[in-house]
Amino acid sequence: MMADVNRTGPLVEYERRISDGELMTGDICQISALRELQRLHDELVESVDTCRLDRYNTSDKFSRSRWFWSRLMPQSSYSPVNGLYLYGGVGTGKTMLMDLFFDQLPCTWKKQRIHFHDFMLSVHSRLQKHKGLSDPLEVVAQEIAHDAILLCLDEFMVTDVADALILNRLFGHLFSNGVILVATSNRNPDKLYEGGLQRDLFLPFISSLKERCVVHEIGSSVDYRKLTSAEQGFYFIGKDLSTLLKQKFQELIGDNVIARPQEVEVVMGRKLQVPLGANGCAYFPFEELCDRPLGAADYFGLFKKFHTLALEGIPVFGLHNRTAAYRFVTLVDVMYENRARLSCTAEASPQELLEKIVTISEAKSMAPRTSSRSRKNDVTELCVDNELGFAKDRTISRLTEMNSKEYLEQHAISQNL
């Protein structure tokens, strides 16, 4: 344990939780990442004035004036402290470590912790608001920097070409406004947006990211999310289980409650039709959520109003329904971020739902079948997609955790159920 009892920070808090039995015995890989987070924590505390982190500090009382004049006369002010980019596989505890770091920082600091999906939705919404200006991206960056000098982005993953094409300029402006980035991701920075459209225009962002952030890989032989105990009665495997799921849905909303179609406002005036909803619970056939042109914005809007989703008929994913697989991965990410509850029927277990999705390297390493007919069938059934392949393990892990006793108990506590 740390000798200085007055010292604070993520590593100090982590060791306290282990000592109190709240966490398992320290994972050496997590401790290595925590040392980096503790180092950054200490640097920020020492440089709080220089970095303009404290929103109530008298030295920052003219910040609004400075922000106004910077819109008229742009000026660079890079932070003396570099950020941190943590990456690693599924279940290594990245989100937990990010939360531990963020929660140990003073609440008076200009800081924000947000999921990358949600952050980019906010950026695009702000861009719409400033449409018509000569450089709306610069204004958006100044607005973000005014509210949050320390920007913590969880699950940094670039799959959308619209995001990819603005990230370099956006973060160029953010960094020149003194913003410090802390990010978690499943991908090495050099592998971000790999194989994406017009990736050559995205590559300068990777260089900028590595220049402004310390890059640290976190590994672990343990998927902590799979250590939870399974809870029966929320994930039903099989076909034609609509009646069973509707019975479960009725239990969740209350025996005497009648569910009715509802409408949810999602983003920029758009509305999402909910087939059935009551008491914070929504019921959807899979096709209505994942076979329609919906995205993260729609899902975030849905879970601002509902805390539980009953989803009927999740299929096995492959080449024939690749787009639906992308939407399903996004849906699970948004649900997990919002700590929402899932009750569903599916054709197979979480592992089997996504076993036909593979990365390019996985496809190359697969041993060919002796029969040419078998080999042809294997190839036609496989979906070779790097982004989906990398997201697969995270989705399986999250679905497993979301069906655990511990997750469902936390959900019940948070919703006062």
UniProtKB/TrEMBL annotation:
Gene3D superfamilies: P-loop containing nucleotide triphosphate hydrolases. GO terms for cellular component: chloroplast; mitochondrion. Pfam families: AFG1_ATPase. Keywords: ATP-binding, Nucleotide-binding. GO terms for molecular function: ATP binding; ATP hydrolysis activity. The keyword Nucleotide-binding applies. InterPro entries: ATPase_AFG1-like, P-loop_NTPase. Coiled coil: none annotated. Belongs to the AFG1 ATPase family. This is AAA+ ATPase domain-containing protein. It comes from Capsella rubella. The lineage of its organism: Eukaryota, Viridiplantae, Streptophyta, Embryophyta, Tracheophyta.
